[in-house]
Amino acid sequence: MLSIIEKIKKGRLHQFPGGVHPEGRKAISVGSEIISPDLPECLYIPVKQHSGTAGKVMVNIGDYVLKGQPLTESTNTNDLPVHAPTSGHIQAIDNHVGAHPSGLPEPTIALRPDGKEQWIDRTPIDDLSNVSPTKLIRLISEAGISGLGGAGFPTHRKLSSGKAVEFLIINGVECEPYITADDTMMRLYPEQVIRGIQILQYILQPQHTIVAIEDNKPDALSVFQAATKNSDILTVSIPTKYPAGGEKQLIQVLTGREVPSGGLSMDAGVTMFNVGTCYAIEQAIDHGKPLTERIVTITGEGVNHPQNVWALLGTPVYHLINHAEPSKKRSNQMVMGGPMMGFALKSEKTPVVKITNCILVPGEGELNTGEDARECIRCSACADACPAQLLPQQLYWHAKAQEWQKTQDYHLFDCIECGACAYVCPSEIPLVQYYRNAKQEIRSQEEEKLQAEHAKQRFEARNQRLEREKEARLEKQRLASEKRKQAMEANGSDAKDKIAAALARVKAKQQDKPASLEENSASNTSRVADAIARAKAKKLEQQTKTVAEQKDANESSQDPNKARVAAAIARAKAKKQAQAVSSDELSTDNASAIVSTIPSVSPEDEKKARVAAAIAKAKAKKQAQAASSDELSTDNASAIVSTTPSVSPEDEKKARVAAAIAKAKAKKQAQAASSDALSSDAAQSRAKTAPSRSPEDEKKARVAAAIAKAKAKKQAQAASSDESSTDNASAIVSTTSSVSSEDEKKARVAAAIAKAKAKKQGKNADNKPTQGNTQEGSE
Predict the structure, then answer these.
(1) How many CB atoms lie within 10 A of CB 73?
(2) Residue 608 in contact with residue 518, Cβ under 8 Å?
(3) Which of 105, 126, 239, 337 is the most exposed place for a label (fewest CB within 10 A)?
(4) Residue 77 has what pLDDT?
(5) pLDDT tens across 622-636, in order?
(6) In Å, how far from its chain's centre is CA 579?
(7) Cβ distance 67 to 111 under 8 Å?
(8) 3 state DSSP class of 622
């Protein structure tokens, strides 16, 4: 161990393989001060600005925040919070162009400054001896500090590794061309940087602390050598060679140790921090300030005033370029970082983040854009320049062919993306861009595999859990079954008796159910029949009353003979209507009412109910026929028709036509009879008004008038009787549903008889007026 320190003090350093010597061009941006630009109109603060996972957003749109206020919070050890760079209002929380090679949008908090620069309440640490290293690590994490040298690895992760540290190396090499941010900080803020180193020493307790500065920075080197002369911090100058500032390369130069492939610096007993990180740690512990700003170099031939500025995190690139005044030589290209390891920006609205150390604005033709790339000539210059001793040519071919597994076989992830291979490539192939793209694709595939494996594990765990639950249920059921079996065996005959009694109760209940349904059906039938009888009686009573009223009115206003004829006709019609109504009610209402009031029963009980309804309907119809038998003249025909089945549609139509003709003729005869009555009354009136006759002639005239009057009355009664007979026959025929051929023949015979009687009565009626006229003429 002493031999390594002695070698370092004597300047006997080691060399790393490869490397190049590009033109530095650092002098154009080195100045005597660091300027703070004006506040931009809006700050775009990405939620994730480190290598790890993003924190949880703690603010909402419209909130007013103070400078240094946390905008996100950490949810695990890989998270780092971001803080408000100034006071103002949250304008938006949305996707915005990100500060990485792809330029894809990422979650960003837009903050509109109010210009007041109001800080949050801060709690600095005055005495380190009163604070534990664990608390200091927590404060560094809460301040959101990550590596400011370019990797962006969370600082608190390095500090909490738990491994013994032999060498604490502070990287002040800054080997990238054009960039002078670390150089300016070491020259202007050496005390703050050294204080940050002392805080790291207190936390890590390293055996040796070394500050490495490249020999192309003589001012910074002299300042640090003077500041660390009487301390346990050793300041070392190393030769200028790119990329001497790489972590693995610097460890190899100082200690001669190589970091194993895929390993970290801690595996070699070394922990390394950038000088900018040390300054941020000092500000967080001694002043309570979180990381809200950093030094950024604005350089290149595309600006008139190259310089270093204190840039607030989230400042758009165009605001810094405008501050340095763009020149007429400016090209359309912008690079975040240096020409070797930086990446081209997609938009001027790209914000400054924690790892942004330079904004390079080249002039026309100043940088290789990669647009003139030609085919590889297999010169192997890239392999000679590679400091990681890789084969860039093979990596390029496999990355271009998207053969990701082969790129890993050639140790793609050992590439530090220094750009030395692209710098020496005579074909001007942008090799680093291919390597970056390949790394991103491989990381994406590995992440998908991890998610799929995690899903598989969860699925298998779920199946195992369900299987265990199933086995537990089966075991529980088995135990319950055995318990029931044991209980039944213990109870013996008692259990069997209980089961038999239960079965007997079920059977008895099923047998009682049909009887109760029959009783309900019978009671419903009787109630319906009583209701129909009451309605029938009430209707007949109303009709009789109406007929009586009409009779009284006719007797008071008409001739006694006419009144009697009209009363007889009215009585016959009323009786006929009553019979029709009662028959319809018994034939339709009774059945429908019975069916509608019967509750839901089994098919056998329903059949019994329909039989009972049919019997009731038949009885009601028979009673109606018996009640009307005294008034009908064709009782035999009616009885035959009412009991016959259905006839064909043609025969039924003929029967209805015959009945209608008979009815019309009967009505005509009634009108003739009433005309005869009027003739006889006129003869009587003429006899009264005639001149005086002899007693013998007067007696003859009275006899003739009485005879004519009696004949007219008889004819009126006969006409009303025929009309009733024919109407009744017609109604019976029209309501007949079905008859056989023999019964149909009987019905036609009855209709013919009725028709003949009506015709004969019509002839008699025609003769009666002639006799009256003769008598009147003889008188």
Answers:
(1) 13
(2) yes
(3) 126
(4) 81
(5) 765 654 544 434 334
(6) 70
(7) no
(8) helix
Task: Please count the other Cβ atoms lying within 10 Å of the Cβ belonging to residue 694.
Answer: 8
Q: What is the pLDDT of residue 75?
A: 82
Strands lying side by side in the sheet with 358-360 = 307-312, 293-299, 358-360, 335-336, 343-344
- Residue type at 337 in one-letter notation: G
Do the beta carbons of residue 418 and residue 433 sit within 8 Å?
no
Instruction: Please give the Cα distance from 158 to 768 (Å, whole number).
Output: 143
Q: Please tell me the predicted confidence (pLDDT) of residue 529.
A: 74
Residue 155 has which token pair?
């600082």
**What is the C-alpha separation between 293 and 37, in angstroms, rounded?**
12
Please write down the long-range contacts of 22-28, taking CB distance under 8 Å and 24 or more positions apart. 22/177, 22/242, 22/339, 22/340, 22/423, 23/177, 24/177, 24/178, 24/216, 24/240, 25/177, 25/178, 25/299, 26/177, 26/178, 26/179, 26/180, 26/183, 26/216, 28/178, 28/299, 28/306
Enter the DSSP assignment of 231.
Answer: S
Q: What is the pLDDT of residues 215-250, one digit of tens each?
A: 999 999 999 999 998 889 999 999 999 999 999 999
Spans in the chain with pLDDT lower than 50:
558, 581, 584-601, 627, 629-647, 676-693, 719, 721-740, 765-779
Ramachandran region, residue 402 (left: φ > 0; alpha: ψ -120 to 50; beta: rest) = left
Rounded to an integer, what distance in angstroms lies between the CA atom of residue 37 and that of residue 670?
Answer: 128
Nearest CA to 414 out of 437, 431, 392 is that of: 392
CB 568 within 8 A of CB 717: yes
Q: Could you give phi then psi for residue 235, rounded to 5 degrees?
A: -100, 125
Strands 56-57 and 343-344: unpaired
* DSSP structural state of residue 10: T
Rounded to the nearest 5 degrees, what angle is found at the Cα of 327, between the Cα atoms of 324 and 333? Answer: 90
- Find out whether the peptide bond into 243 is cis, omega within 30 degrees of 0: yes
Rounded to whole angstroms, how far apart are CA atoms 555 and 559? 7
d(CA 472, CA 22): 73
Contact 736, 641 (CB under 8 A): yes
